[in-house]
Here is the input.
Amino acid sequence: MDDATLKNDKKDGTLALKEKKSRSKNSSQNDAGISIISERELSRELGFKEAVSIGLGGTIGGGVFSVLGIAAKLAGPAAILSFVFGGIVGVLIGYSFSKLSLKYQSAGGSYTFAREAFGRTFSGVFGWFLWVGYLASCSLYAYTFGIYFAQMINLLTPAHDLSDIGLLRLVFSLFATLLITLSTVINLVGVKETGKSQNIIVLIKVIILVAFIAITFPAAVKNAKTNLTPFFIDLEGNPSSNILLGIMLAVVGTSILFVAYEGMELIPNATEEIQEPEKNVPRSIYTTIITASIIYILVAFTALGGTSYTEFAGDPEKAEYALAYAAQPVLGAAGFIIITIGALFSTASAYNASLYGSSRLTYVMARESIFPHFFKKVSKKSRVPFVSILFISIITLVMTLSLDLQQIAELASSIFLLLFAIIALASLVLRKKINARFIWPFLGFITSTILFGIFFSRIITDLIAGDPSAKITIILFPILLILVTIGSLITMKVQKKSELTSKE
Here is the structure.
């Protein structure tokens, strides 16, 4: 046999081996579902700073600026503990997210983790429900942005008669719509521009909050004895010496404001676009949770220490912009305006980050036939899932203009508590594959499940007491659960049938 023949045989054998490997690779991908990595269309342009900006952008938003008032109404001064408990649970859940993110790097984030742990059908329902949770959180941030802007304009209006002439709602709607529109444009331009804008916005809002803490802390310490004692209240909102009841109410507050920790969930969605994910993803998740928790606790202390919670907790309108109201005793009207500016930057970055994460989730689920395929369309120029971004923005606008703050916050928190419990359970199921210790995912699952149970116990109690917001929440949650289950199953069936038809 001559050299040419040997070379040809060797070449043919090499090609055959490559073809065999290719077939094997494709087969394994089909068995496991569509491979995220093999169909990567997104680009890695986000560093550690951008990842933290996305996490903090989605975390320090509506929670501290608006939900603080709702938590104070429930727990009084002990709402400070609500943020402490939230931070502890956040770290436990963050452990599961960091471990799962390293093993399964996907723009699908939590959806991908659920798929790997529980299978495609369950993860389809999970993914749809998570998508609704993103919509609720986006709506929360847009609502908070709009109401703070409207109240600032009302403060600057002579005689503060904006609400009297019926324009307050119109102004709120206008600026909430403006935020949604601008964030949509930013996200459509490209991921690098989204990351850059997040860096700037997050830096500004952190500076404002740190400045607020520094300026108001002395007054909070001085007035703490008056405003923070007694520290606990009873079910009727009266001062109470029952420590156990007070702690329970603080836990209830945690269940309501837990949407304030939703931002950590956004980072796994960006793993396909984060540089050096093995190093940057865990660091950014923990940095987000710890930084946000410290700021939350200090802001809650200065706000509730400097101003009696009864000043705004009993007024539904003041509760919506509680932090700005709490700044007035120390800083006057200027304090209201400064905090409002901080709220505007915070909610803008939170919305921007949540829109980013939800659009990537939609893109991945469409890529895996959980959502209709047209959602996976990516712009040739900017490489972003533009159909997903536009659709989410439209639905968010409708929710923002049709629900009130408490309804939106309750819906978002209930969904994320349930979903975080499932993520912790997923990390337990996959703990050997992701090299996770048993104790931390287990504690994360137990604590988030308990918070979810406490949340609905309070909703039922409020429903019995005749609270209209509780009525909407208790009806809306199961309806959404049924709708997303039906929707996901129908979509998967139709997409599967379509794929089989195209193959034939």
